[in-house]
Design goal:
Elements (H helix, E strand, L loop, with lengths): L1 H6 L5 E3 L6 H8 L11 H13 L6 E2 L2 E3 L2 H12 L3 E2 L2 E3 L6 E7 L2 E7 L8 H4 L2 H9 L2 E5 L7 H14 L2 E5 L3 H6 L1 H7 L5 E5 H10 L7 H9 L11 E6 L2 E7 L2 E5 L15 H13 L5 H15 L12
Parallel strand pairs: 1-7, 2-4, 3-5, 8-9, 9-10, 10-11
Antiparallel strand pairs: 6-7, 11-12, 12-13
């Protein structure tokens, strides 16, 4: 494993540079034990929701992949998990991948975005994709997509408002509210349910003129921000790791307990927020009460942080 250690620091999490690009194909050609799992923030949330719903075709996903073996593997994995997909196939950009390199108990992540950054509005409004949009009743997108096609997010948001459907977004990362403030401002009025962790909400407050670091105050202020669909009051959900989850709903703040996980069982916390959103939505779409939805979200997060990546248990 020394070849990889020379290129990637142990426990690093990086975007791939040119010197890292050979890793992906070489992992396939050498004597490594390689497993594949669909990834990406939004895709993982949908996968978790599908896992809990446990009904083939209950969820759908749209994104961009390359015309390559990784794209084919991704499609096969999603089909196996019962998720409808309609990927835009980019003929020049390879499928985005993240290589997880395990060295003893240490883990290094090498991410290559590539085709994931190439999604187009034209694909969204094409007949096949737009039919998926109009058929759906709930929509979820990670904030990362603000860097790719905010116009697509707005179009889905407009449809959701017109048909009184539910549009959800995740803040995803603190840097988005700072460096992509304008597209975030354009999409936020469509958001019925907003997810994020404490760092993401405090970064949002700092960049959107909320003069407080108190999460209850921040959630309340965001809940009162302008909203396109007056028929739905905004729900603001703040996760805080091992602390209670804060929920602003209908003018009130309430805290909910998490599912505790012993420190020695925690392997990877990176996908906790995405998993929480998936678990929450799997109950919300069934019109369950907020306590049940938050409990499901916490259960999903607890499950995911005990494995590497967003690895879902085999139902068999």
């Amino acid at each position: 494993k020394q070849w990889y250690q020379r290129r990637v620091a142990i426990t690093a999490g990086i975007l791939a540079e040119d010197k890292h690009r050979p890793i992906y194909e070489e992992l396939l050609g050498e004597n490594f034990k390689v497993s594949y799992s669909p990834g990406g923030a939004t895709q993982n949330t949908i996968r978790v929701a599908q896992h809990y719903l446990n009904y083939p075709g209950a969820t759908s996903f749209v994104g961009c992949i390359g015309k390559d073996s990784f794209g084919e593997k991704l499609k096969a994995c999603m089909k196996k998990e019962g998720i409808n997909t309609n990927y835009l196939i980019n003929a020049t950009a390879p499928t985005g991948v993240c290589a997880v390199l395990l060295t003893g108990g240490n883990r290094s992540l090498v991410t290559r975005l590539d085709a994931a950054n190439e999604y187009t509005y034209e694909h969204l409004v094409g007949a096949e994709t737009w039919k998926m949009v109009t058929t759906a009743q709930f929509y979820y997108v990670a904030g990362f997509f603000l860097t790719v096609s905010p116009k697509s997010m707005q179009s889905v948001g407009e449809h959701a408002v017109k048909e009184n459907k539910c549009f959800c977004m995740n803040l995803s990362a603190p840097f988005l509210s700072q460096f992509f403030k304008e597209p975030m401002q354009s999409v936020l009025p469509y958001v019925d349910i907003l997810f994020g962790n404490e760092d993401e909400y405090r970064a949002f407050a700092s960049n959107f003129g909320i003069a407080s670091t108190d999460l209850n105050v921040i959630a309340t202020k965001i809940g009162a921000m302008p909203k396109k669909n007056s028929k739905r009051s905004r729900i603001v959900i703040v996760t805080q790791g091992d602390k209670p989850t804060i929920v602003f709903r209908e003018g009130r703040i309430k805290e909910y307990p998490i599912v505790p996980v012993p420190a020695e069982k925690i392997i990877d916390t990176n996908g906790a927020g995405d998993a929480f959103a998936g678990g929450f939505l799997s109950e919300y779409v069934k019109n369950k009460d907020i306590e049940t939805c938050v409990s499901s979200g916490s259960h999903a997060a607890a499950m995911i942080i005990q494995v590497s990546g967003c690895t879902l248990p085999d139902r068999n």
